[in-house]
Design a protein that fits this description.
With about 350 residues, the chain is mostly beta strands. It has 5 helices and 20 strands. Strands 1, 2, 3, 4, 5, 8, 14, 17, 18, 19 and 20 form an 11-stranded mixed β-sheet that branches. Strands 9, 10, 11, 12 and 13 form a 5-stranded antiparallel β-sheet that branches. Keywords: Signal.
Length: about 350
């Protein structure tokens, strides 16, 4: 069935009891020293909850102690243009029922004024989020059988049920693609949401080599996204089903680093009201990836030993594969052909 409840709960419980989630995963809490893996100097005068010296989610110098907020966002044609995606530090693309995709946008360094359309959570989210410690998690609801897992997960539940006036309906759009939220108001409902910790990413100069790449496409059974390199913008610009993917706040959606992470996808125990099973994306263990930055593609390996640990990306010879400072997309595709549960 894929999702092993008892094992997952043991992981979360052990992490909380051992203080892992309160202090960071791959690096000790506190500042200090030069980050040898990237060669970047720590940010002087800026407190950091990690030993990296830069923001662990985007490699920047601001918002180092801001809380982490994860938001589920619709990623189908009726939801376009989305709001707030361009402001995220990290954007995950996850397969959902019917071979479509949904985003989980992770914010910390700064917040947009509006984010959405906000949609429901999926079980794969609960496997990804423990590496962020205990973040705030915004979503519009879950399948009834998943509610107990949300309650047991290391997140602050600020869903539509708990978020109060932070959520509003946009009457110019059709339900269910019209629910939006104010991130600042969301975080008021989770005052103890954790600051960013080391999730395994490293930022700095690109490694040697790499294959010059102008564009590439990620595919799922019923969706595809293309990313094209813009030398002018120094980032990858996204398209959805061949159309430019725009942010409602202005400009094209895209990031400085796009990671296509190949992870085994199987059927979970959950399904929607139509009987379509929810995919489970296995994001612990090891696998292969392609890291796209600076107009080049780099072959990579990924490793995440447990759910309370971050995900590291390395070159073929085991050296950390630095991301370009800026927004990171983790595009999760099946390890093999597109998979339909």
């Amino acid at each position: 069935m894929g999702f092993v409840l008892n094992r997952t709960l043991r992981t979360w419980t052990a992490a909380a009891m051992g203080g892992v989630l309160a202090c960071g995963t791959l690096a000790a809490c506190g500042g200090g020293g030069k980050d040898k893996s990237s060669g970047r100097q720590p940010v002087k005068g800026s407190p950091s909850p990690t030993a990296l010296g830069y923001h662990p989610l985007n490699g920047g110098a601001t918002g180092l102690t801001n809380p982490v907020l994860a938001v589920k966002i619709e990623n189908t044609a009726p939801a376009m243009p989305q709001s707030g995606v361009s402001a995220a530090d990290v954007v995950y693309v996850e397969q959902v029922e019917g071979g479509e995709t949904r985003l989980m946008a992770v914010f910390s360094s700064h917040l947009p004024k509006r984010v959405g359309p906000v949609r429901s959570a999926r079980i794969s989210d609960l496997h990804l989020l423990p590496q962020f410690g205990r973040p705030a998690f915004a979503f519009s609801g879950v399948q009834s059988k998943m509610k107990k897992y949300i309650r047991q997960a290391p997140v602050y539940d600020i869903s539509q049920d708990n978020g109060g006036r932070a959520y509003v309906r946009d009457n110019s759009r059709k339900i269910p693609y019209n629910l939006y939220a104010d991130p600042k108001d969301l975080l008021k409902q989770a005052p103890k949401a954790q600051a960013p910790q080391d999730v395994g990413f490293r930022f700095g100069p690109a490694p040697d080599g790499g294959k010059p790449t102008s564009s590439f496409t990620a595919k799922w059974p019923a969706a595809d996204m293309e990313f094209a390199w813009s030398a002018k913008d120094k980032r990858w610009l996204a398209s959805f089903h061949g159309r430019p993917d725009m942010d409602a706040g202005g400009g094209r959606v895209g990031g400085q680093t796009i990671v296509v992470q190949r992870a085994k996808t199987t059927r979970s125990q959950f399904h929607d009201f139509l009987g379509a099973y929810t995919p489970l994306i296995h994001t612990t263990g090891t696998g292969t990836a392609t890291v796209y930055r600076d107009g080049k593609a780099f072959d990579a390996k990924w490793s995440r030993p447990s759910e309370d640990k971050g995900t590291t990306f390395t070159t073929a010879d085991g050296k950390p594969l630095n991301f370009a400072p800026g927004q990171v997309w983790i595009v999760l595709v099946n390890d093999g052909k597109p998979y339909m549960p």
